[in-house]
């Protein structure tokens, strides 16, 4: 019996790992442009605004993908949407590598962004709906871990192709490989039992559950899900899907997604090499090597979040991480405000501060944000609600990334990082006041708690 349970548990981890390749692709897209931009600028002359547009064009696509595919995920299922995203990644990666001009490249990155927007909400949704509650935080954290692996992979790819002919083209096209693996892997997996039951496909749901649960637990899980669906149906009608009890978790989910981005993470990820060049690294290769080190920190600290998300809980990790991000942003603000005083030490303080910031984010807001959003939303509208939250995430992502270089050029690095530090303070207050603790609570119990409030 122990061996049987072990096999089931291993299979659950394998399912989560395959689906999480979507996160790897999203992370790859975030990180690869950081190094590729250095060489694209050498081929095509671009202003700071145009550079920001090239970087943020993928985010425009992400907003489109997230906005249009929440409903599709509820209609066609989580699995089919993941398959569709992998195909789009394959096509767009080839187009990025081929790009004959800047407009073509921007359009290709918009297509990449659409795939990122689709996969960013559907993969945590898929994993949370197949995960047992005791290890749900750990499994959903695999998505964020995959993002960090994708970022690290992109940094390594940037270094591998830095001194080759057509360097940035090879960098951008390399996403083709994990996209192919994701497509092939998902072909062998089932859709989530919760979605299948929502479509009255109980036979398929039982088959999906049989792969991940002992036989004596399947009826209990199915009855709980049916009860939740029936309760949700009794609280909705054809004229009003969003009842008052559903509004609070959706708004909190949107707040978590805004908090995740508005604290500045993607300015650090997208512009890591640029920040290091500003701080004193004179060569592209030196900045890329420093960026690879940051990628390792990101990866290692996400493992910490996976280890403790189901032990310490979601909120303690958020308190610790946001406090670390606040301190590191204040240090960055101080460093860039006292360049004459620090001299050559500026670049080392910059590396240290960015490392602390990334470590703090990776153990808190990165994985915990997606865990919470995948947990707190009502099952009946989870795909659509997750889509709304993801649109909010990418909308702020677009604004923050597009404005970062112009902000630095207008008010300076010191004040720019100080703004992000202030957002960290607001985020700590938001977590304390509004974010619930979901550790060890089933998705059905979480939903019932909202209905009682």
Account of the protein in words:
The chain has 453 residues and is mostly helical. The protein has one domain: MFS general substrate transporter like domains (Growth Hormone, Chain: A, Up-down Bundle), CATH 1.20.1250.20. Helix content is 83%, strand content 0%. It is built from 21 helices and no strands. The chain has helices at 2-19, 21-43, 48-76, 78-98, 102-130, 136-161, 167-173, 176-186, 193-198, 202-210, 215-234, 244-262, 265-270, 272-279, 284-308, 314-337, 339-342, 345-362, 365-376, 382-434, 443-452. Helix 14 (272-279) packs across helix 15 (284-308) and helix 15 packs parallel to helix 18 (345-362). The model is unreliable at 236-240 (pLDDT under 50).
> Helix content range of the residues, please?
over 70%
The global form is: globular
The total strand number stands at 0
Number of domains: 1
* Distance, first to last CA: 41 Å
* Strand fraction: under 5%
CATH class: Mainly Alpha
Using the CA coordinates, give the radius of gyration: 22 Å
Uncertain residue ranges: 236-240
What does the largest sheet look like? none
CATH superfamily: MFS general substrate transporter like domains
N-to-C SSE string, H for helix and E for strand:
HHHHHHHHHHHHHHHHHHHHH
Second-tier CATH architecture? Up-down Bundle
Mean pLDDT: 82
Please work out how many helical segments DSSP would assign: 21
Look up the CATH topology: Growth Hormone, Chain: A
Structural class, judged by helices and strands? mainly alpha
Structure in a nutshell:
This protein is mainly alpha-helical and 453 residues long. Helices cover 83% and strands 0% of the residues. It has helices at 2-19, 21-43, 48-76, 78-98, 102-130, 136-161, 167-173, 176-186, 193-198, 202-210, 215-234, 244-262, 265-270, 272-279, 284-308, 314-337, 339-342, 345-362, 365-376, 382-434, 443-452.
């Amino acid at each position: 019996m122990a061996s049987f349970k072990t096999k089931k548990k291993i299979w659950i981890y394998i399912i989560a790992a395959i689906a999480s390749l979507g996160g790897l692709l999203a992370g790859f897209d975030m990180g690869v442009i950081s190094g590729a931009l250095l060489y694209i600028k050498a081929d095509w002359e671009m202003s700071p605004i145009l550079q920001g547009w090239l970087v943020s064009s993928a985010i425009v696509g992400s907003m489109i993908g997230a906005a249009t595919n929440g409903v599709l995920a509820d209609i066609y299922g989580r699995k089919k949407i993941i398959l569709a995203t992998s195909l789009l990644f394959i096509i767009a990666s080839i187009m990025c590598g081929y790009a004959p001009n800047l407009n073509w490249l921007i359009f290709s990155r918009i297509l990449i962004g659409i795939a990122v927007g689709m996969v960013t909400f559907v993969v945590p949704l898929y994993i949370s709906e197949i995960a047992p509650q005791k290890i749900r935080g750990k499994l959903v954290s695999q998505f964020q871990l995959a993002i960090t692996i994708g970022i690290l992979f992109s940094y390594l790819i940037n270094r591998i192709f830095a001194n080759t002919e057509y360097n940035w083209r090879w960098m951008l096209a390399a996403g083709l490989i994990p996209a192919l693996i994701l497509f092939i892997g998902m072909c062998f997996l089932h859709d989530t039992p919760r979605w299948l039951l929502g479509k009255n496909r109980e036979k398929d749901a039982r088959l999906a559950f049989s792969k991940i649960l002992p036989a004596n637990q399947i009826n209990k899980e199915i009855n709980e899900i049916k009860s939740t669906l029936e309760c949700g149906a009794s609280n909705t009608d054809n004229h009003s899907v969003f009842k008052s009890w559903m509004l609070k978790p959706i708004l909190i989910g949107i707040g978590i997604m805004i908090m995740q981005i508005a604290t500045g993470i993607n300015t650090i990820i997208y512009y890591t090499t640029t920040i290091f060049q500003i701080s004193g690294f004179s060569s592209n290769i030196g900045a890329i090597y420093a960026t690879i080190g940051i990628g390792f920190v990101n990866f290692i600290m996400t493992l910490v979040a996976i280890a403790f998300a189901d032990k310490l809980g979601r909120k303690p990790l958020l308190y610790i991480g946001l406090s670390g991000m606040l301190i590191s942003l204040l240090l960055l603000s101080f460093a860039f405000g006292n360049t004459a005083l620090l001299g050559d030490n500026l670049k080392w303080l910059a590396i240290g501060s960015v490392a602390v910031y990334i470590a703090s984010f990776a153990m808190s807001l990165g994985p915990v944000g997606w865990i919470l959003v995948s947990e707190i939303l009502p099952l009946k509208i989870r795909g659509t609600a997750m889509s709304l939250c993801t649109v909010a995430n990418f909308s702020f992502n677009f604004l923050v990334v597009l404005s970062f270089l112009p902000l630095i050029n207008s008010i300076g690095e010191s004040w720019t990082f100080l703004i992000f530090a202030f957002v960290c303070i607001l985020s700590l207050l938001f977590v304390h006041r509004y974010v619930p603790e979901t550790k060890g609570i089933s998705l059905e119990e979480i939903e019932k708690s909202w209905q009682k409030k």
